[in-house]
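Ticket 4471: requesting a sanity check on a complex prediction with zinc ion. Repro inputs:
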Amino acid sequence: MLYRAHLLNPCSPTRLEEIPDALMEVNAAGCITAVGAFEELAPRLGNQPMEDLRPLWILPGMVDLHVHLPQHEAVAMDGLELLPWLETFIFPAEARFADTSVARASAARFFQGLLYRGTTTASIYATVHAEATDAAFHEADRCGIRAILGKVMMDQHSPAALQESTAESLAQSEALCQTWHGRSQGRLQYAFTPRFAPTCSSELMRGAGLMAEKYGAYIQTHLSENLAELAWVKALFPEAANYTDVYQRMHMLGPRTLLAHGIHLDAGERQVIRESGATIVHCPRSNAFLQSGIMPLRRYLGEGLSVGLGTDVGAGPSLSMWAEAAAVCTTSKLRWAERQNLAHHLRAMGGLEASQRAEIMAQLDLNPLTPVDPVQAFHLATLGGARALGLDSRIGSLEVGKDADFVVVDPRMVDPAVDRPAEPPERVLSRMLYREHPGMVRATYVRGARCFAAT
Ligand SMILES: [Zn+2]
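Returned structure tokens:
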């Protein structure tokens, strides 16, 4: 099958590849076998069936590294920070998944929501319920999305409706991993999912780490999101040097580990994470919503940490990775501006010793950094996320040898000037992110199969 369209690829954090009139060939297995300029490829590729998508654009599908399926219908519950928000809104929403028919219906809507927003790969938390998780896998399989999914594990400090025994949690997670990990030619994968340190015993976390290693599966959890959470972890695990050290001691850190948030990490923690190869998943809209803070993204990237993006629905308000990427830029600008402003006031202030002033300035992290821009945010949302999963040889950009995971986008839907002459792709991309329109994704393909089409 051939697709003719305007093509946009992420090449690096600073560079896009644009082919205004592109042709992409996809074989029966859903693999890209040729991609390039139409005028160069058309004579060679002959008379295959062709979908002429012009003037629409094709881009690689979005990679969402952190999202909660059972929270999809509990979004936008405003007014609380992390821990009371979980107790008040989220745990009751997750308890409903004890009814598998509720779980199945919610899963179908959730996956449709991801595809509708152009997300082709997602790393997903289900609930503690094994049957609901199994139903979610069935729905992911049926709709064609690429999913990394896991049953949430929690065996302490949890509401009665969600708390499991350690043995039961480990046994059910292992059974689900054995059933689903690698299914549908690797399109479905398992992630052991201890929720976060406070709701997990050491035995549970250690067991999850061992099983992830045994099966070559992923492991996903939350790390260092909120100051009250940090204090709780410190009280529960006094033997650990810090929050990251809790997971390090449980053998949970490795290249297939996804750590959501990581807002408050000291230099030692960042070094441990970097050396382990684990990924920090940045979720800026969630962090704003729960008043958690702004992760120092540029600092982490500068230090060589692996970073990806996640919507973190339901603390994040929607499944749109376009809007999440825009929020990466917005929060990066706010962080940059606030620090510049603080430094300005600090310089004008009297009454501080020079050494105190120097210390505060150092804390402000005022290196000559500029905020993250849309090209870098788009890279994080696509190829960067794929790399974090160790899947960048398969997905993340539209290249020969990769799977045809792509979205068809109508940029006219986000442009007030529909008669605008051609302009640099960075500007078009910027509008797609900042002005994301729910209807701009016209179709979503995973491995060459159309999983969503706008009517
Ligand atoms: Zn989360």
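Notes from triage: The chain has a mean pLDDT of 96. Leaving this open until the requester confirms.
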